[in-house]
Amino acid sequence: xxxxxxxxxxxxxxxxxxxxxxxxxxxxxxxxxxxxxxxxxxxxxxxxxxxxxxxxxxxxxxxxxxxxxxxxxxxxxxxxxxxxxxxxxxxxxxxxxxxxxxxxxxxxxxxxxxxxxxxxxxxxxxxxxxxxxxxxxxxxxxxxxxxxxxxx
Length: 152
Prior knowledge:
Strand content: 15-25%
Order of helices and strands: EHEHEHEHEH
Distance between the termini: 18 Å
Number of domains: 1
Radius of gyration: 15 Å
Structural class: alpha/beta
Number of helices: 5
Largest sheet: 5 strands, parallel
Strand order of the largest sheet: 2-1-3-4-5
Mean pLDDT: 88
Shape: globular
Low-confidence stretches: 1-6
C-alpha cells in the first residue's frame, strides 16, 4: 500500500501593528482554524525582511498567505503590497488586505496593486473571528496555491 506524505503545513504571515487585532486573528485560527502555522511582523519593513528571508528572518518559511494591514509604521501595507507584487519571486503569494479602512480609494488602490482580496475588519469580535476563519478556510482548503501540496 502506497503511503502519502503529510500535506504541507499552511504558513500564514500576519502583518499588523495592532496587537489586539493580531491576538484576535491568532485566537480565531487556533480555535476554529486549520492548524496553520502563524508568523507575525508588526510593520512593512519586517514584512519584506520576512518575505525575502533577510536578517532575523533568514530561516523563515515562504508563507502561503499574507494577511496585510494597510496603516503601519515604517512602511505601509500599500508599499508592501506594491513591492511584493513587483517581485517575481514573491508575486504569486496571495495577499488579503485585512484592514479597518472601508474607503473606496483604499479598496481600489489595493486591487490596482494586485491584492487578492480586500476585507474590512469587523468591529464585532465574533464577526472578526468568523471572517478570519473564512479567509483561512478558503485559501487553506479550497484554493490551490503554488508550492503547497495538500491531500483532499
